[in-house]
Amino acid sequence: MNSATLLSLAAYFALMIGIGLYAWRRSTSDSEGYLLAGRNLPPSVAALSAGASDMSGWLLLGLPGALYLTGLSAAWIGIGLFVGAVVNWIVVAPRLRAQTEDYGNALTIPQFLANRFPDQGTNLRVISGLVIVVFFTVYTAAGLVGGGKLFETAFAGALPDTGLSDYMLGIVITAGIVLAYTMVGGFLAVSLTDFVQGIIMVTALIIMPLVVMFGGASDTPVSLGSVPVDGFLSLTEGLTVLGFVSAVTWGLGYFGQPHIIVRFMAIDTVEKVAAARNIGLSWMAAALVGAIGVGICGRAFAQANGIVVEDAETIFIVLAELLFHPAITGFLFAALLAAIMSTISSQLLVSSSSLTEDFYRLFLRKEAGEREAVNVGRVCVALVAVAAMVLARDPGSQVLALVANAWAGFGAAFGPLIILALTWDRMTGAGAVAGLVTGAIVTGAWIMLGLNASFIGGEGLYEIVPGFIAAWAAIVIVSKAGGRAVEPAK
To answer: Which of 52, 138, 169, 335 gets the most CB atoms within 10 Å of its CB?
Structure first.
C-alpha cells in the first residue's frame, strides 16, 4: 500500500473527527441539539445528509456488484429507489417537518407516533423502538461488512499485525472513527460529515466510469458490447416478473427509513423543504448513474484486460487500485468509507435516540435532565455499534443482502404507518399498532420461510411487497373497525 494512499485516508479521518469536535461545541447541550441539531439545518446540508445516509456502502459495493454480474437489468433497483425518493420528498418531507413540531416537538419517530396517537402512545414507542434497534443493528452490520471488505481487499499485508484479520481490523477501524465523531458531535456532526461525504461520493462515482472508458488506462479497447453475458446492456434480459417487481419496489422502503426521514424533521423551515428536495434528488440521480456506470464499465474493463474479480462487490476497489495515482486511490477509498460511515453514523444516532428517549427516559429515568440524556445517548451509540460488529464478523456476508433485509423491515413496518399518519385523519392508534406489528412480522416471516427474492431473475418476491401491503391493510381495517380516531393534542 502506497504511503500517499494512506496519507489521503488519514487526512479524511482527521477531517471527520475535526467536524465532530466542531459540532460538539455547537449543538450538544440538550437533546434537541444532540438529536436534531436544533432543527436548524440548511437545505443543502439536510439534502446531502439524507442522500449520503441513504446511499450506504451498497452504492459503491452492492449495486455495482449486481450490475457487474447481471448487466443493466440490475439498474431497476436504482430506478425504483429514485421514484420512491421523489414521492418521499413530496409527500412525507413537508408534512413530517411540520407535524413533528406541532405534535409536542417530537425528537424521534416513535415520539411523533406516540404524540399523534396518544391512546396507544406507550405501545407505539416501545414497539417502534424495538423495531428500530433490531433492524438498525443489522443495517449497521451491513455497513461494517463494507468497511471490512475494503481493508481486506485493498490493504492486505499493509496493516500492522494486531492478531486480527485484515477484515476484522477494517471493521474495528471503521466503527472506531464513526463512534468518535458521532458520540462527540451528535446529529450536527453526523449531518455535516454526511454533507462532506456526499460530495466525495458523487465526485468519485462520476470520475471512475469516465476514466475506465476514456482514460486510456487499458492497452485493449474497452467495449461494453464485448461482455460475454447475454443481454448485458438490456434492461429486460433475463428479467422475470417477480424479479422486476422485487427490484422496483425497493422504492417503497423510503417512507419508513428513520435515518432518512429524520433529516426532514431537522430542516430549518417547512418552506425550505422544496429547495432541499431539488438538491437531494439531483445528487441522487448523479450518484445512481455513476454507480451503474462503475458496474457496467468495470465489467467491460475486466473483460478487456483478463482481470478476474473474485467478489463482484469489490469492483470499485479493484478499479481504484488499478487505474489511479495512489493519492487519488486514497481519495476513492475515502469515498467508499464515506458511503459506509455516513450511513452507519446516522443509524447509530437514530438507534441511540430511540433507546434514550423511548426506553431510558420513558421507563427508567423520567426525570433525567438534558445533560444526562445526552450522555446516555452516547453510551447507547457504543452499545449498538458493538452489537453490529459482532453480526458483521463473517467475511462471507453480502452487503446487498443485509441491506435488503433491513431496508424491507423498515419499509414495511414504518412506511404505511408514516404515510397514513401524515395524511389520513381517520387513522387510529390501534390501527397504527396493528400496521407496525403486521409489517415487521410479515417481512420477517417471508425471509425466514425463504420466500424472498434474489431480485434479478429471482424465484421469490422481495419481502417488502407482502409486508408493505399487509401493514397498509391492517392499518385501514383496524382503524375503520375501531370507530372515531382519538384527537391528538397539539
So the answer is: 52
